[in-house]
Amino acid sequence: MGKSDSQGRFSGRVPGKAKKGWKNMDRTDKFLELIEFCRSKKVYIQTHNFPDPDAIASAFGLQALLAHYGVPSMLCYHGKIDKLSTRKMTELFGIDIRPYTGLGEEMRAEDYIICVDSQKSGGNILDLEGNEIACIDHHPTYVEESYRYSDIRIVGSCSTLITEYFRDLEVPMTAEVATALLYGLKMDTAHFTRGVTMLDIEMFQYLFPKIDAEKMTDLEKNTMEFNDLKAYGSAIENIRVYDKVGIAAIPFECPDSLIALVADFILSLEEVEIAVIYSYREKEIKFSVRSEMSSVHAGTLINRVLKDYGNGGGHAEMAGGSINRENIRLLGAYPDDTIRDLFINAVADYINS
Length: 353
Description:
Largest sheet: 6 strands, parallel
Radius of gyration: 21 Å
Strand content: 15-25%
Order of helices and strands: EEHEHEHEEEEHHHHHEEHEEHEEHH
Structural class: alpha/beta
CATH superfamily of the largest domain: inorganic pyrophosphatase (n-terminal core)
Number of strands: 14
Number of domains: 2
CATH architecture of the largest domain: Alpha-Beta Complex
Shape: globular
Mean pLDDT: 87
Helix content: 25-40%
C-alpha cells in the first residue's frame, strides 16, 4: 500500500499487487482492486430501506475506509430513519446519510453503488439509478445477483465485516467510527445473544479499546419513545399463540425498526418460539419474524410464506418481508386469517419435512 500522512490519510495509489488473476486473489486484494475501480467515479454507499444502527454504522465505516484511500462517497437510503437510537447515532457522530430523494443531485446510470447490509433484489432495498458494482452483507442470498466485488458472509452483523477490513488492511480508525461499528454490532446481535459467530467476538475485541465509552453510554440510554408503546400495546392485545407460534397484527402504520422490536418482545414470552408481527401500512403489509426453534429458519420460512404474495428473507433467527398494496387483495376477504394459516401451515411443513 501507499504511505499515510501524519493523520492516517492515504497518499498515493493502491498498488496492483494482485497480478495472479482476480479469481485467485484473497479478499483484501479484491477489495483494493475495487478501490482502484472506483477512482474518478461518483460513489454511493446504499443501505437497506429504513436503515437500522448496523446498516448506518457499516455505511459510515465503509465511507471512512474509502476516504482513507482517497475515494469520496455519499451515504444514501430509501425511506426514513425512524428509530430513536438510529437518529441519536447519526447526530452524535455527525453522519451525513441522506434519503435518495434528498441527495441534492441527480444520480446517473454510470455512477457506482456499493450495497451494505443489503443485496440487490433482496426485497428491502430500492433499485436506484446507479450501477450496483459491489455488495458487503451478512444476510443469506435468496436471489442471485452479480457484482464486480461481493463479500456476503453469514455473521452477526455487517459492522463485523467492515471492522475486519480495517483490521486486515491496518487502516487507522477514529473513536467515532469504532463506537458506531461496535454499537451496530451489539444492536444487530441483540447484545451478543443472537446469531453470534467467532468473527463477531474477534471484532468486538478489536473495537472495544478504540471506542469512546462516554458516547457509547449515551447511545444506549433512552432508546424508546412514548409513541412506541402503542405498537407494543396493540401487539399484546392482538397476539394469538398457536403451538409455540405467536402471531400479532399492528393495525396501524409502524416503522420497520419498531416492528422488529415488537417481534423480539413477543419472542421473549415463554410460550413463543416463533414470533410473527406485521403492520398494515399505506402501501404494504410489513412483516418481522423471529425464530428460536432450531428446526425453523426464519428467513426461509418467510420466503416460503410470501413467495406468491410479496418477498421476504433473512437470517435463521430473524427475518423480514412485505406484501405490496396490489397483492393484499390476494389474501382474500379476511387477510389476518389467511396470514395466520399461511404461517402455521408453513411451520408445520417445515418441521415435518
